[in-house]
Amino acid sequence: MTTAVRRAALLAAVLGVAAAGLATGAWHLLRSQARVARAAIGKPLGEDGYQVDRIYQRKRGNPLTLLVLGDSIAAGLGADRRRRTLGVQLAKRLAVEADRAVRLVCAAEVGAETWQLAHQLDALPDDVRPDVSVLVVGGNDVIHRIRLAESVMHLEIAVRALRARGSEVVVGTCPDLGALQPVPQPLRELGRQASRRLAFAQREVVVRNGGYAVSLAAVVGPMFVDRPDKMFAVDRFHPSGAGYRRTARAMLPSVLAAIGLRESVPAGHHPPLPPRDRTGEATASSL
């Protein structure tokens, strides 16, 4: 072995050891920051959402059924009143736009990960046949470091199951975790990157399976960044009543389009892809 080769080998070994040391240091830093973030956020809101299941705008008659599934955002944790939760905000706005009563069924659970959507569906009463289902999930998958492929697989199963029940589907993709000010850097930036990767993958699987995807990071994310004192609840982690109001307003166009009350959707909303045959070409009925 020549002197130059020996020096190169030695340098590579030193760099490898240094990189391992940096990786270990970074890992310990992130764990420490995660503990700081958990302590800063705490659980001032508890772990239970509101009971919101009922028929809204009953006098309008002929109710549509709106099903809401997912995590604490879908459950409305952080709203100071029942009427300010995401589900109720959507139900009331849908009732006005459709001029029909809306039966709201919310099976979302605080702390839920995507794999738990199947359990939420299984627990539904037999008489629940949703016209449209709204899902918001993914944040806990990022926080608990669930593999992206696994998370997306469970979302696809849920979307397909709902479509098989005859329900239209609207998914609010994973919010931008980089907006969470209590989380220190660089952990916050890593959360932003991971949540955006998951949101993109969610969007792809939803539209491919006949659902509408709403990119929450795009349609409401900037508001949470610019006005955190108003848009976040006291834990600075979940939306406030104002945050849910803006989120419901932002998601409504896709809900209306899904049930045929609107022909197009604005930027940040992604309609279903045309039907595809097994070769990946558009079928004749979609041309």
Quick recap of the structure?
By secondary structure, this protein is an alpha/beta fold. It has helices at 3-41, 72-75, 86-98, 117-122, 139-143, 148-164, 187-208, 216-219, 221-226, 228-231, 241-258, and strands at residues 54-56, 64-70, 102-106, 132-136, 168-172, 212-214, 269-270.
Any chance you could write out the topology, listing elements then pairs?
Elements lengths: L2 H39 L12 E3 L7 E7 L1 H4 L10 H13 L3 E5 L10 H6 L9 E5 L2 H5 L4 H17 L3 E5 L14 H22 L3 E3 L1 H4 L1 H6 L1 H4 L9 H18 L10 E2 L17
Parallel strand pairs: 2-3, 2-4, 4-5, 5-6
Antiparallel strand pairs: 1-3, 6-7
Walk me through what this model shows:
48% of the residues lie in helices and 10% in strands. The radius of gyration is 22 Å and the shape is globular. The model is unreliable at 2-34 and 281-287 (pLDDT under 50). β5, α7 and β6 form a beta-alpha-beta unit. It has a 7-stranded mixed sheet with strand order 1-3-2-4-5-6-7, with helices on both faces. The chain has 2 domains: 1-41; 54-270, Rossmann fold (3-Layer(aba) Sandwich). It has 287 residues and is of the alpha/beta class. The protein has 11 helices and 7 strands. α6 (148-164) packs parallel to α7.
Fraction in helix: 40-55%
Strand fraction = 5-15%
- Overall shape: it is globular
Got a strand count? 7
Strand order of the largest sheet: 1-3-2-4-5-6-7
CATH H level, superfamily name of the largest domain:
SGNH hydrolase
Q: Round the mean pLDDT to the nearest integer and report it.
A: 84
Annotated CATH topology of the largest domain: Rossmann fold
Helix/strand/pairing category: alpha/beta
> Which sheet architecture does the biggest sheet show?
7 strands, mixed
Identify the CATH class of the largest domain.
Alpha Beta
Uncertain segments: 2-34, 281-287
H and E string: HEEHHEHEHHEHEHHHHE
